[in-house]
Amino acid sequence: MNTKDKIIKFSLEVACDVYKVKPQQILNNNLRKGKVIKAKRMFMYYLYVYLDVKHNEMKSYFKKMNHATSIHHVKKFAFELETYKEIHTDFNYFLTEMKKFNIYGIDFYEKRKEIKKLLKEINIIKDEYIK
Questions:
Q1: Where are the domains of the chain?
Q2: Does the domain at residues 3-104 carry the CATH identifier 1.10.1750.10?
Q3: Are the C-beta atoms of residues 71 and 57 closer than 8 Å to each other?
Q4: Which of 22, 45, 50, 59 is deepest in the core (most CB within 10 A)?
Q5: Are 52 and 8 in contact (CB under 8 A)?
Q6: How far is CA 5 from CA 1, 10, 33, in A?
Q7: Which helix (H) or strand (E) covers residue 84, if one does?
Q8: How many CB atoms lie within 10 A of CB 57?
Q9: pTM of the shown model
């Protein structure tokens, strides 16, 4: 797997993490729930703007995707990014995670997820101990 593929795989994971969806829900292109659409648009926008994936190439990553649909989603996300503070905040978090990945590598993100999980467990044990 080359570097660009690793970045794409990681960016999909982060988009899924932001909106709490599964990668298959985004890539299969058959679920119309709001959070899935938002995650898909964020991922597409990142591919198009930051990784220079052309609209015709999006079909390599999404099932049943044509260039017109890709154009629509990218433009819609750009509009939402400028208009809605929530989308802007989510995308800033996404970009922060991507910058960390570019600096520290994939191991950093996986270790961070492990630390978050352990902290939750520690807090649960701490809360039970206090009671």
A1: 3-104
A2: yes
A3: no
A4: 45
A5: no
A6: 6, 9, 27
A7: none
A8: 15
A9: 0.76
